[in-house]
Structure to design on (642 residues):
């Protein structure tokens, strides 16, 4: 059982406010991912939860108990560090046993826990090795094993995949997802990679500049982003943002003409349209209901293609097209035809979504 | 304009190449360094007459009478033991104290930490021998004149600045996440230092140890001032008693010097791998 609740959490380093008031509830057995660009405060928040750094203000409650002044090891929380932080002079067994022994467990209990963790992570053949004799993926597993051996109710993982090569990354990602299902503990996972966030998370917390931008399931974030930042951060290739000026049902872009969107919600005059690559298609220069654009280049991927075009005001849009679209030549005049049903409307000034408002 | 007849003689660099030239310089340097040591060892196997008649001849290495005489007819073994006690205690003390001080300076943010480090650094620049008279008076008042404690305390104080300097620099390079990991695992501050950090400091401890070991082992000045009792003399000081006013048995003397230099040399060879590892630690990651 582990329910975490953060209320008005703030953190200052000297005069810099890194976290500016975080409110968040994390449910039992949830795998929650903190995602955001570097410097958004996600790792700082994780360290506050771990108890490695003190909070400047706010409250952190774990299972109904305030964690104010509770030592990291007494919080029933284990952490996997970005650099793994394995003890270099101890072998794998001792690395995993270090925490369990300090919990005051008997020798047999420590042995049993390590056997269990090692079995789960296929570490049995490596128990006598030193960390320097292990590959990156193996070190990663030992770091997770060390956390497992303490049997905590909350796991914190700080960018655990960032030191692995791309091929290994998806394997370990799968392992972590499986592990989460098997042990059923609450996990908090920090990453800057939205693909990791989307594939792993029960819920995602998108952060920017020390604030939470949106909390929701991957689907919620993708389909109903609360603001333009979340819209562009989640999804790959990125959502294109088109700054338009509204005149009734007409949305115009300087140098690209205007289109009529009868189903648009109530908005102000300045509207930013958010378009995912598959929410528009490339039309010929005389296609109706499209913005004029100049074709830039195409990325041919075999089964599909990503196309890039530049609008009259200089905005570049990326869209998904069929492979036949690659026949366009750079410099060709084309039209970008949005699909009205998949459009997102954001306030150009605040970035907020009009749909969710 | 003709380039006939311009025959360029290849210089040293051309003949041997850059690496070759480097080798030659290093070999020459090795000979210069080893020469006195070889003479010392060889003379240890010779009689007085042989030393002066044929100083460079190869002696009969089976004749160890000088060494036997040194061990049985003089206080050599006592001096050796004294040197071991004084050097060992000093190194132990200064590594323990120095590491503790360095750990605090390197790992904890507290008011005045950089001042304390600077204070230790200042110790590197103070020639301790200038303070010999106040030290003498201090030790006299403390009642530890003419005892090993006088030497141990001077050597420990003398070695602390360099030890703190070396250890602080090294401990600062150790990743902070290790400490965090240990803290998450429930280790106390003392255990973090003892079980996690200190084992990783071994290369630096070896450097600091050897760096201080050699001057302490070889020191002549402080025992000369502080120790009067023959039974308490250290090796370098004790060796001088073999130089007589009218005659000196040079063979026995050199045998003694060879024996005196041996422990440090052997220790150095044993630890040299660690020493070099430590010196280059962090250079390549």
């Amino acid at each position: 059982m582990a329910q975490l609740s953060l209320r008005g959490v703030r953190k200052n380093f000297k005069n810099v406010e890194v976290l500016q008031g975080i409110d968040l509830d994390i449910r039992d057995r949830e795998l929650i991912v903190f995602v955001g660009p570097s410097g958004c405060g996600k790792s700082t928040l994780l360290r506050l939860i771990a108890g490695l750094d003190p909070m400047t203000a706010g409250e952190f409650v774990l299972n109904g108990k305030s964690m104010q002044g509770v030592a990291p090891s007494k919080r029933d929380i284990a952490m996997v560090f970005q650099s793994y932080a394995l003890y270099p002079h101890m072998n794998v067994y001792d690395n995993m046993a270090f925490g369990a022994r300090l919990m005051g467990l008997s020798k047999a209990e420590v042995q049993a826990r390590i056997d269990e963790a090692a079995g789960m992570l296929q570490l049995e053949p490596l128990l006598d090795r030193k960390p320097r004799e292990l590959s990156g993926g193996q070190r990663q597993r030992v770091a997770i094993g060390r956390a497992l051996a303490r049997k905590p109710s909350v796991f914190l993982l700080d960018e655990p995949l960032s030191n692995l090569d791309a091929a290994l990354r998806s394997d370990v990602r799968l392992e972590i997802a499986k592990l989460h299902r098997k042990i059923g503990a609450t996990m908090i996972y920090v990453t800057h990679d939205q693909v990791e966030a989307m594939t792993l998370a029960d819920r995602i917390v998108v952060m920017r500049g020390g604030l939470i931008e949106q909390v929701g399931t991957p689907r919620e974030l993708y389909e109903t982003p609360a603001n333009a930042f979340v819209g562009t951060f989640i999804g790959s290739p990125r959502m294109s943002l088109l700054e338009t000026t509204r005149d009734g049902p007409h949305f115009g872009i300087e140098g690209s003409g205007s289109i009529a969107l009868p189903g648009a919600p109530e908005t102000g005059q300045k509207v930013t349209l958010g378009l995912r690559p598959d929410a528009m298609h490339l039309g010929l220069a005389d296609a109706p209901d499209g913005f004029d654009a100049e074709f830039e280049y195409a990325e041919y991927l075999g089964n599909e293609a990503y196309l890039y075009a530049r609008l009259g005001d200089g905005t570049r849009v990326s869209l998904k097209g069929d492979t036949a679209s690659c026949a366009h030549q750079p410099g060709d005049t084309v039209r970008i035809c949005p699909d009205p049903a998949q459009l997102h409307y954001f306030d150009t000034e605040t970035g907020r979504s009009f749909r969710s408002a | 304009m003709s380039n006939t007849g311009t025959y360029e003689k290849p210089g040293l660099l051309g003949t041997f190449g850059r690496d070759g030239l480097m080798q030659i310089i290093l070999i020459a340097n090795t000979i210069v360094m080893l020469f006195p040591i070889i003479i010392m060892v060889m003379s240890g196997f010779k009689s007085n007459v042989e030393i002066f008649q044929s100083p460079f001849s190869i002696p009969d290495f089976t004749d160890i009478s000088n060494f036997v005489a040194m061990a049985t007819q003089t206080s050599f073994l006592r001096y050796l033991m004294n040197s071991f006690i004084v050097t060992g205690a000093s190194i132990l003390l200064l590594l323990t104290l120095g590491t503790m001080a360095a750990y605090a300076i390197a790992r904890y943010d507290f008011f005045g930490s950089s001042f304390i480090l600077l204070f230790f650094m200042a110790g590197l620049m103070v020639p301790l021998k200038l303070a010999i008279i106040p030290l003498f008076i201090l030790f006299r008042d403390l009642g530890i004149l003419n005892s090993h404690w006088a030497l141990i305390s001077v050597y420990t104080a003398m070695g602390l600045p360099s030890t703190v300097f070396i250890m602080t620099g090294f401990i600062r390079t150790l990743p902070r996440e290790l400490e965090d990991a240990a803290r998450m695992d429930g280790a106390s501050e003392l255990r973090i230092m003892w079980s996690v950090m200190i084992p990783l400091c071994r290369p630096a401890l070896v450097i600091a140890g050897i760096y201080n070991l050699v001057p302490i082992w070889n020191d002549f000045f402080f025992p000369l001032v502080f120790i009067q009792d023959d039974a308490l003399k250290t090796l370098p000081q004790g060796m001088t008693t073999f130089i007589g006013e009218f005659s000196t048995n040079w063979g026995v003397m050199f045998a003694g010097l060879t024996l005196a230099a041996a422990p440090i040399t052997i220790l150095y060879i044993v630890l040299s791998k660690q020493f070099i590892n430590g010196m280059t630690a962090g250079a390549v990651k």
